Amino acid sequence: MSPLRRTQRAKLKKGGRARLRSNRPQRRATRRRPQQQGGRAPRIALVIARYREDLDWMREYADLPFQRIFLYNKGPATEAPTCPPLKGKCIVRQLENVGMCDHTYMYHIIENYDDLADITIFMPASGDLPNKKARSDFVIKKTFAEGHPVMTGFVHPNPVHKHMYDFTLNSWAVSHKDNKPEGYLPTLHPADVRPFGKWYEAFLPGVETPLEQNVGIFSVSRELIRAKPREFYQTFLDQLAKDKQPEVAHYMERAWPGILGFPREWFYDVNELKLI
Prior knowledge:
The chain is an alpha/beta fold.
């Protein structure tokens, strides 16, 4: 026996812990998962923000075990939507047509603050459009496969509110053909505080992140949401409720990482993933 082994054995006999060095390569750090009670898989809910879109395209996710599906309809109440062909209890609610999908997400967070799923996936019913479908697939499938929140977007070299400080938007046309009623105009209701950087500093003071979300498709854990009080989200909902097409919805779309305190380790750069 070598002198080193004898020394280590002697330490063990005395109650000490001798750690043998290994020549095996060290494993790279992996993305951590949220801790779930009892070792069970996280319960995952789906929130869908709809106007008039058909939801049959979601059939390809029919095998996924959603805990609950919340379908929020902002289209005419006379056109009652059918639940998507998915597993899980489906809850349909009619909302006033204001604030776009970001209003729907904020409404869900506030109304279900005390009864949130372990992880909630948020997405517009137009998630099958060419500029969104790859993101829909990635976020939904990655959330179930990894068991942690998932968000995609852009990673900037400096904080997003500084990188996009002068961003404003006066008009924006909806992309889905079924969401353009007769007489539709793309004019946006201007934000009370603008440009984006000034708005961000007013409502998210001291929050710095290089992450920019876009397209409104992401998942988030109950813990991340509840890290801030319900009243915090109400401030944003009030801004979104002022108009059908508020400019501030486009600010919030880009600010979701800051609003939620989203970790960089669960954020995926669309340029690296080639999801654009």
